[in-house]
Amino acid sequence: xxxxxxxxxxxxxxxxxxxxxxxxxxxxxxxxxxxxxxxxxxxxxxxxxxxxxxxxxxxxxxxxxxxxxxxxxxxxxxxxxxxxxxxxxxxxxxxxxxxxxxxxxxxxxxxxxxxxxx
Length: 118
What we know:
By secondary structure, this protein is an all-alpha fold. About 80% of the residues lie in helices and about 0% in strands. The chain has four helices and no strands. Helix 1 (about 1-20) runs antiparallel to helix 2, helix 2 runs antiparallel to helix 3 and helix 3 packs antiparallel against helix 4.
């Protein structure tokens, strides 16, 4: 999932900053990867079908990208950690929705299989 990729990139950037290593190019590249992923999530939103949820997600993604930009420029850890927390919360929410949907489909007798017994 895209959230996992963004979290992974932020983990790398945060770890380097916490260790005070002088690999700022690696930090910057990983923060930019996370920004690219968030931008991809933004452009994939369908405002017609998604309504308020799509608008809210767009605003959250905008906030995250601003925080990442600021954190990257200033090489500050806290904005990166805040965005990572948002991404992990969103990932968890989507996983819960997927699990619930799967359970509902299975309970309704649509266990994902096809009946070919005529």
